[in-house]
Amino acid sequence: MSQFLIALSQRAPIVLVLDDLHWSDRGTVAMLRHVARFVATNRVLLVGAYRDVELDRQHPLSDALAALRREADYDRMLLRGLDEDDVGRLLSSISEQDVPAAFVKAISDEADGNPFFLREILQHLVEEAKISRQDGQWTAKFSIAEMGIPEGVRQVIGRRLSHLSDAANKLLSAASALNGAFCIDVLAGVAGLDELAALDAVDEALAAQLLRSAGDPDVCDFTHALIRHTLYAELSPPRQVRLHRAVAETMERVNGDRALEHAAEIAYHYHRSMTLPGAERGVEHTLAAADASEAVYAWDEAVAFLRMALDLLPDQDVRRPRVLGRLGVALAWALNYDAAETVASEAGELLAQADGDDAAADFLKDAARAIAHAGGDSRAWPLAAQGLRHIGARRDGTWCWLTYYDLGRRDFDDPDYAGIRIDSPQLRELRQVIDGLSDAGLPQFITRFGSRAALLSHGGDDPGHLGSVGEFGRALAGYEMLAARAEAEGRISAAVMFWGQASALQVALGSFGDAHVARRRGMALSSRLAGSTAGVFMGLGVARAAFVMATDAGYEGLLRDTEQLASAPAPEYNFAIAAIRLIAGAAHGRLGHIDEAMRWLATAQVALERGSARSPQYESVVCLAAEVLWALARTDYVELIERSLRNKVLVSDYRNTLVDGRQAMGRICALQGRLDEASEWFAQARVVLEEQGSRPLRAIVDFDEALMYLRRAAGGDRERALPLLDAAMRQFAEISMTGWITRGEALREELG
Asked: Is the confidence at residue 437, as pLDDT, over 80?
């Protein structure tokens, strides 16, 4: 409802105010014209407000406004609805407390900024107990459309509708079933009006400002959603249902071969009229709308349309199992993991009955992968076990993925789990099958090709493989590309993991500022996830630990989170629990907490002994164990750690971020008094780390060797240590390794 303000002013204390209730009276209008002639010569301010929507050419005020321009000087100001910020302030003022932004937007959209409507809606919701105060804010229990229309608003809208012709009211009543803008030719067909009558009705509604143009000349929309809701509420339920069916059939007829371009709208109306015969005709439209939603990764919308399709499908329709399966996968990407598992499991059994065990196993593999990649890792385990019951003697890609996820379940259920995947018979069989297949889409990280050299030859450009062989720059570019793609496709857990991996690589390269940017981006995305995921740990957790260890600062926060995970591991983190425990041990070691560090180190014995060098975490586990001993200058488990380094880590020669087998070997040799051998390992580490561009770890190697000589303190060791310490300090300063700078300064004082 547009409003104008007329102000005729001359600096004066006399103020006359007239509102729109007076303008229909010709005497009031005559008085206005009479008084206006004297404003210029008297100290009078005259203010009048009127609704232009009710001002036609026959209205007494119309002629007066034209005449006033000749008789007096006045200003006319258009009063628009409040914007969203003003709506928020008004609602906060009325309610005397903060109102949530989402609630403000919802009410603002309904009332289009009309202050009267806003106040009426808020008071109505409070009186009907449909909103309540919780923690100092308003909380809504229903959608705006379900909250009902306040009596005062209905009266205002009803008064405006009563001035329209029967044809206009009939057209608007039909339009009330449509969500959003609508095409006039469709609306005419639904209302049963010919084109000329429909156009006259639209002209009338536009003039009354009940409708507004939506850009296209043939498309309109209600000026206020409240008008739509008021009209729709006047229809009985049987009429509402039949109106929706009429809309669906009219849209099909009017759009002809292009009906599927409007699939979402047509699907909605078929679903709203599903109690009428023939509702199954809407299935084609619901599935087309789901296709369109999936194509743009709008998973919540895809879920809604697939649910509609299932509602419309007859119980025995052969399409039901596949549609149910699609719903399970869409629920996974919509981050509703529990529902995804339940629906996918049901779909798997229906597919087994309809299409056989192979079809069921293939689908359950796809569903398990979708749930795991979306972030519901442990929810994939029951589906994998279910799929393996249907797989039979097959040993193909489907079997590999199902077995891989089932291994996660077995590990979590195993009370003797070592904290890292070991070479069990099932794992060896899985590796053998994968090695015999050429499908690059298989879980190749299970095999890791046995050694860095083999991975370099066969691993391709996969950033995970590149990061495992020390190609950090190439891996970084790959992860950034994957992260952006996953983010665009709505794969939030994957995007979090990729941004975290990119952050960890930036740390390894010494680019701490860029590492912060990547990690913050991953953290912003992680807030959209329902809970803990492997992607969060593999991404943000690894990135945080890498930064703390590289800068030697921030241990308290890292320990708080890491020890909580290590003490009560969630299913999603179980695969890396040994590494998590040793991150806590290494942090305690850096802080000089002997008992805590050794307690966590003791938990890693089985992982060190039985862990496979092919495991992505094994190198980190062994090197972190060496880190604990090095930080505390102890030799507990030193023989086990040295054996693990020589026989597994150095043989496979994988190179992950912020650890290096040669550096760890140098530390272990130094702890045992073999300083010449240690010096050789440190020299080898420098060569490798410089090739990789691992600036923080390269600087720490110089510090380690200086510390080694200080600890021995034999003749000439001070002279050997000082140049190494100077070199380390220069590198620490270049990339702002703040904690290491402090350690270096303390060590320099000891050296004198």
From this structure: yes
State the maximum Cα–Cα separation within the chain, in Å, rounded to a whole number: 115
Q: What is the pLDDT of residues 377-401, one digit of tens each?
A: 889 999 999 999 999 999 999 999 9
Cα-only R_g, the chain: 36
Task: Give exposure, 53-83, as e/b (b: 16+ Cβ within 10 Å).
Answer: bbbeeeebbeebbeebeeebebeeeeeebbe
Contacts of 313 (CB under 8 A, 6+ apart): 280, 283, 319, 320, 323
Type of residue found at 160: R
How many beta carbons lie within 10 A of that of residue 342, not counting itself?
Answer: 15
Stated as kind and residue range, the H or E segment containing 285 is helix 283-295
Place of tokens 């980190």: 620
Residues 630 and 597: beta-carbon distance below 8 Å: no
C-alpha pair distances (Å), 240 with each of 119, 164, 200, 231:
29, 22, 24, 11
Closest of 471, 526, 548 to residue 739, by C-alpha: 548
Q: How far apart are CA 74 and CA 36, in angstroms?
A: 9
The set of residues, in sequence order, having a beta carbon less than 8 Å from that of 394 and lying 6+ positions away, is 358, 361
Query: 568 pLDDT exceeds 90?
Result: no
Q: What is the structure's pLDDT at 681?
A: 98
pLDDT at 352: 97
Contact 398, 382 (CB under 8 A): no
- Pick from 588, 594, 582: nearest CA to 626: 582
Task: State the virtual CA torsion across 397, 403, 404, 406 in degrees, nearest 10.
Answer: 150
Tell me which residue of 295, 304, 293, 356 sits closest to 327, measured CA to CA.
Answer: 304
pLDDT of residue 7: 47
Each residue's pLDDT tens digit, 447-481: 667 788 888 887 678 888 889 889 999 999 999 99
pLDDT recorded at residue 12: 45
Predicted TM-score (pTM) above 0.70:
yes
Whether residue 29 has pLDDT greater than 70? no
Per-residue buried b or exposed e for 538-560, using 16+ beta carbons within 10 Å of the residue's own CB: bbbbbbbbbbbbbbbbbbeebbe
Closest alpha carbon to 107 in 87, 123, 124, 127: 87
CATH number for the domain formed by residue range(s) 149-235: 1.10.10.10
Q: What's the rounded Cα separation, in Å, for the pair 350 and 355?
A: 8
